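Q: Hi! Curious about what GTPase Obg looks like structurally. Here's the sequence.
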Amino acid sequence: MFIDRSRIFIKSGKGGDGSVSFRREKYVPNGGPDGGDGGKGGDIIFKVDPGINTLSDFRYNKQFKAEHGQNGMKKRQHGSDGKNLVIKVPLGTIIRDDETDKIIADMAHMDSEEIILKGGRGGRGNQHYATATMQAPEYAQPGQKSKELWIKLELKVIADVGLVGYPNVGKSTLLSRVTNARPKVANYHFTTLSPNLGVVDFKDGNGFVIADIPGLIEGASEGVGLGLEFLRHIERTKLIVHVVDVASLEGRDPITDIQSINKELESYNMELLKRPQVIAANKIDVLTSQEPIEALKKEFEPKGIKVFPISAATNDGLKDLINEIRTQLSTVSKDTVVFEKEFYTDHIEDEAFESIKVEKVDEDTYSIEGPKVERMLGYTNLNSEKGFDFFQKFLKENKIINQLESLGIQEGDTVRIYDLEFDYYR
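A: Let's find out. The predicted structure is below.
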């Protein structure tokens, strides 16, 4: 089954905690701190795998977690880093934040590799906190928290040319005639249930990729038929080829069909109508009159859209059509259409962690709250003089004392930090 969308949960590894340890050797009765640092948590990395062409691997597997870093150990031993988790995706996969739908990364090149979530930093052991006045620190830094995110994966195929048209007009047959693709071809609607890609080769090496985009009918941009499922795959194409049944074997009007599909393209993404277009008037082998071709030319060639009578069944006209496509592609950028990054994951949770809320509760009581403060309390021994001095230094370095003073705190007032209360003195 062709799967081109999926929603998954990713989580990087937590950093290992720093160690609180002291040398305990036979002839070193007053050994100094020797707590080692924690290891870094593993990253979540996405990488293009050319051997994958759908997102079917994510159909049932929805959760991906990297390894945590190991805690630091005594004797200055560093905890081992958590292993990175590399998630392989097909070329053309777009990674979006699930909540905002903003683009995190576009895996648009064969060598695309992106760190989507970084693992937490390892905490520093107590060996780093020894000073001339604090020779036996009883605290260490905890590892940085992991980061987690629900994301959406969306595949947009990489192709230079997109074949569009109503079902049963001959798109798959045309693709099979001019490229190395071998799509399923049959005389009934919606034979093609997934985009098919083929390469048109030339002796000079300047070939191009064609995609057969299935399911485009009137109302496709609103979810009618299969159109909405596949409209995304035309967004990277540089040129659009309308394939129509010029013989009207099923009673359809080719001009109305092209106008209807252009309307759907415009409704989905207005930029699509700015792409060059060519019309492949197919099934001339069963055409009894030239009037339909003349009508197509009269309607569209004044608008700069050339009409090429072809028969995918007999190969008539295919050479002229392919040469025109090649000529038009030579006038547009050869760069792959890449969607710009809109969402940055570097600061997920970091902003909340860094936020510190300082406020005046009543006339002589003030409160301090925030994840950063709460975390500091968790690894500081306030019952020791050195630990309390360390915490005061933290309050000064983070300008919390300045905020209290700007709110009008006076000596003897109460400072409440969660379930702890202190009297304020300068």
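A: A fun detail: The longest helix spans residues 254-268.
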